[in-house]
Amino acid sequence: MNNSHPGEFILLGFSDRPWMELPLFAVLLITYPMAMVGNVAIILVSRLDARLHSPMYFFLTNLSFLDMCYITSIVPQMLFNLGSARKTISYIGCVVQLYFFHLMGGTECLILAIMSFDRYVAICKPLHYTLIMNPRVCILLVSTVWLTGLTFAISEATATLQLPLCGLNKLDHLMCEIPVLIKAACGEKAANELMLSVVCIFILAVPLCLILASYACIGHAVFKVKSSEGRRKAFGTCSSHLIVVFLFYGPAISMYIQPPSSISRDQPKFMALFYGVVTPALNPFIYTLRNKDVKGALADLVRGVFTSK
């Protein structure tokens, strides 16, 4: 461990606005269990209901598991700090959070792109769907996505942790995050900023472009469908995914594409709350409320539980 690294960090969070801490604590206390229950429910119905044994729900199950890990990597520590006067995180805890949070974030960027590709094949090439999206291909895609997310987290977090902090032990944030640590570091950090921007182009911008291209093709194909019921079903399936994409990618791009030195003081706090808490909590409800198959499977699961009792 570098001597310039402190034993612990003080996370300032909203200490300059203490009136925000209690409402934020209450919101997180409600949001976290809600997100966990919602994502567990999607995983259960996707595994237990035979109607949902398809590539789309295989990817959705992975997304739900990701969201559970993603929100767990930051919210318990936020709740502890917001609910106590001691707003610290150990250096080892910060390192673990840094790797874990960025592993989940990087993987989610890519799995959303895989899900849009799945919808593209299902709508634009329906006759070849089962051939293209066979179980072996789906497992290979998900494995590649997880491996890429792991590579991103290890490379970026490790490079960031090499930066000297010159005795600094205060971070103006709610958690440990790469752009904030780069901004807080002393000495030459232009190479880290450039590396982060370049890597995030491949992790954020390229997948987003692929998603938009997929949905452009989907839109073109859907408008050719003569049946209004067919168009409505296609738009219903895709709109849920598009909502999730914009909720996640919007804040993430505004945070990671620009150089850390140009980030405003409060931007990391609100952006992290949005893509690290709000999006994982809303995802299960977005997919459930706009999907008849998932709603039907959930209703059957609940009915089965009460019937057995």
Automatic annotation (TrEMBL):
PROSITE patterns: G_PROTEIN_RECEP_F1_1 (PS00237), G_PROTEIN_RECEP_F1_2 (PS50262). It is a multi-pass membrane protein. It holds the Pfam family 7tm_4. Residues 38-287 form the G-protein coupled receptors family 1 profile domain. It is found in: Cell membrane. The chain crosses the membrane at residues 22-45, 57-79, 99-117, 137-155, 194-223, 235-258, 270-289. One of its GO terms (cellular component) is plasma membrane. Putative odorant or sperm cell receptor. PANTHER family: OLFACTORY RECEPTOR. This is Olfactory receptor. It comes from Mustela putorius furo.
